[in-house]
Each structure stands twice: as structure tokens, then as C-alpha cells.
Design goal:
The chain is mainly beta. It is built from one helix and 31 strands. The strands form eight sheets. Strands 22, 23, 24, 25 and 26 form a five-stranded antiparallel beta sheet that branches.
Length: 346
């Protein structure tokens, strides 16, 4: 794969060297659309989670979790009985999954084999992304209107509310006892001690407006957040210093990091997948974006195959710009929700 991405970078530099008067040859895409999977139902969705232990892809889909077998790209079924679900996480100790119902302020514990909900727990207002922390064994849930995280101990069902002083969107853990949270309304990144449940820092993100997606490279001590104004901020997790600010598409709601290929992704509602190569901890190169489809703003990555998963539906009419400089917001046709599977070009 290294030679492939070096080739992609070389193509970019060659294209940049061609005089403006001379037409440049098109650069081959880094990823190709390999499969589409109709999901049907309401055209309302949020985050996705690729579960490597079972090879299943879980898609937060309104009142259900849609579940796809990634080996066959077939819809397995749905986890039902939910009410406006967003985040997904798994407890490796039991194999059970967790998701939220923001409409009822609850968490549902489900079995990925049977797709049945086994238990329901209380939660906070306006739940969003969630993540499992391997060091503490806890699940952390972002709750925007609550301006807090919910820390859940799956072994005891004990819960703790962690005030943040801002509205969290998504989050990531470094495996060493720290949680990093994008504060969407403050243009900041918060750091939380997973062991004590205390917020330890709030770092400004210069040039980043409304941070949303969060991904992390623990080995390099770098956390990445995609911003609604078409930027991706790279932050040093040891110091809180923003070490890079890179261009991405607008309308990102999800970011991901492929540790095997050292690639950062941003899924953008304007119909692109931004791809950034991590050369080292302080050098990042924006590659040619992959053309996707309007509305495809959330994503997941299968590091074993390199596949990238996105979801969108058919837009209804023109989008509406609700914030100057941000992407338009679209309404979508019911019954058209589709999973898009992108595979590395070589």
C-alpha cells in the first residue's frame, strides 16, 4: 500500500508542476465505489461503527440500528425499539453493544448475534457519539445539550456525569486513560481523565469552526477534528497545541484514522471524502478528495481491507445554508438510504 500512496502523492506534485495553460491529466481516484447496499426505511441516520470482532457494520438509522455483513455486503437485519439513535460502542468483555435513544434519554444494551435489546439504562439529554475506553473498561457518551459526558461502567451499570462547559459532538480515547472531546459550540477540544471522570483541559482550535468528527493516532499523540468551515485541525494530545490545519470538504460530521495506512479521513455532506496522509507527527499532506454523494457525512473504516463505508440518501430539492460559510442542509427522500462501500484503488 505504501507504493500506491507514494504514487498518489507523486501524481499530485506532477500535476502542480504543469503550466496553467496546459491541461493536466486527471489524477486517478484513491478509492473506488465497490458496492451499494440499500437500507430502506426513514432517510434519517447518524454515526456508523465497524465491529471488527464480528465483521458487522452498525448504522444508526433513526429508530433502528441497521446491521450489514461486510463480508457479503448484505443487510442482516435491524436492532429495533430505539428512539433517535446516534452513537454505537461495544464492550469486548461481554461482546455486547451499546447505543442511545435520545428521544427517551436512554441507552440500550444489545446482542450483536441476535440483534435483540437485552437491557435499557438511563442516559442524558441529547446523546450523540460514544466510545469504549480499553484502559478503564468504561463507555463514554457525548451529550450536547447536557454539555457533558456520561461515563458508564458496563460491569456495574454505574454512571457518572462529567460536566464539560460546552456541547460535545464526538470523542476519541488514546488507550492511556484520556478522552478527547470536540466542543462544537466553543471551537475547542476538551481533555478528560477517564479514571477520575474529571475534565483536565480545554484547548482552543484556531481556524476551526464547529468541530464535529474526532479521530486519533495514539502512537503519534495526535488527535484530529473535522470542522464545519472546511478545515481539519491536528492537535498534540500532550500539550494541546494545534500543530496543523488542513483543508477538507464542508459539512463533515465524521472523521476516521486508518492506523495501517496512516490516512486521516473526513466524510463531507458536500459529496467528497477528504483524505490526508500523515507523513509524521508534524507533517500532513492533503491528497485528492474522493468524489462520493451529497449527504454522505458519516463514515467508518475497515482497516483489514482498507474499505471505507459511508451512508446517504437521495436529496429532495436544493439544500439550505443555515450558517454562512457552512455546507447546505438537505432533506432526503424516505426509503432511499444507501450504504456506499469504497475500496482502495490498488
Amino acid at each position: 500500500m505504501r507504493s500506491f500512496f507514494r504514487a498518489g502523492l507523486s501524481a499530485l506534485f506532477v500535476a502542480a508542476a504543469i503550466p496553467a495553460a496546459q491541461a493536466a491529466a486527471p489524477v486517478p481516484p484513491l478509492y473506488n465505489l465497490a458496492a451499494t447496499v440499500p437500507l430502506g426505511g426513514a432517510a434519517h441516520w447518524d454515526y456508523m461503527h465497524y465491529h471488527a470482532a464480528t465483521g458487522q457494520l452498525f448504522i444508526a438509522h433513526g429508530h433502528t440500528l441497521s446491521v450489514v455483513d461486510t463480508a457479503t455486503n448484505k443487510l442482516e437485519g435491524n436492532v429495533t425499539g430505539l428512539d433517535d439513535t446516534h452513537g454505537i460502542a461495544f464492550n469486548p468483555a461481554t461482546g455486547l453493544g451499546y447505543t442511545d435513544s435520545s428521544g427517551t434519554q436512554t441507552l440500550s444494551v444489545f446482542n450483536p448475534a441476535t440483534l435483540k435489546v437485552e437491557k435499557t439504562l438511563p442516559s442524558l439529554d441529547d446523546t450523540d457519539g460514544m466510545v469504549f475506553d480499553p484502559m478503564t473498561g468504561k463507555i463514554f457518551v457525548a451529550a450536547g445539550d447536557s454539555a457533558a459526558l456520561l461515563a458508564l461502567n458496563p460491569a456495574t451499570d454505574a454512571e457518572m456525569k462529567i460536566p464539560l462547559g460546552g456541547a460535545p459532538e464526538y470523542l476519541a480515547v488514546n488507550g492511556h486513560g484520556q478522552v478527547f472531546v470536540a466542543l462544537n459550540d466553543k471551537n475547542e477540544m476538551a481533555a478528560v481523565d477517564a479514571r477520575t471522570g474529571q475534565a483536565t483541559a480545554r484547548w482552543p482550535l484556531p481556524g476551526c469552526e464547529a468541530p464535529t468528527g474526532v479521530a486519533i493516532d495514539p502512537a503519534a499523540s495526535r488527535v484530529f477534528t473535522s470542522c464545519q468551515n472546511g478545515k481539519l485541525a491536528v492537535v498534540n494530545t500532550d500539550t494541546g497545541v494545534e500543530v496543523a490545519l488542513l483543508p477538507i470538504g464542508k459539512g463533515s460530521d465524521s472523521a476516521a484514522f486508518d492506523t495501517k495506512r496512516h490516512l486521516i479521513f473526513s466524510a463531507n455532506s458536500t459529496g467528497t471524502l477528504s483524505v490526508i496522509r500523515e507523513v509524521n507527527a508534524n507533517r500532513y499532506v492533503a491528497l485528492v478528495p474522493v468524489k462520493t454523494r451529497l449527504g454522505a457525512r458519516t463514515m467508518a473504516v475497515n482497516e483489514a481491507t482498507g474499505d471505507v463505508y459511508l451512508v446517504t440518501a437521495t436529496p429532495m430539492g436544493k439544500g439550505v445554508v443555515k450558517h454562512p460559510g457552512f455546507a447546505p442542509r438537505y432533506k432526503f427522500e424516505p426509503g432511499t438510504l444507501t450504504l456506499l462501500v469504497y475500496h482502495p484503488a490498488s
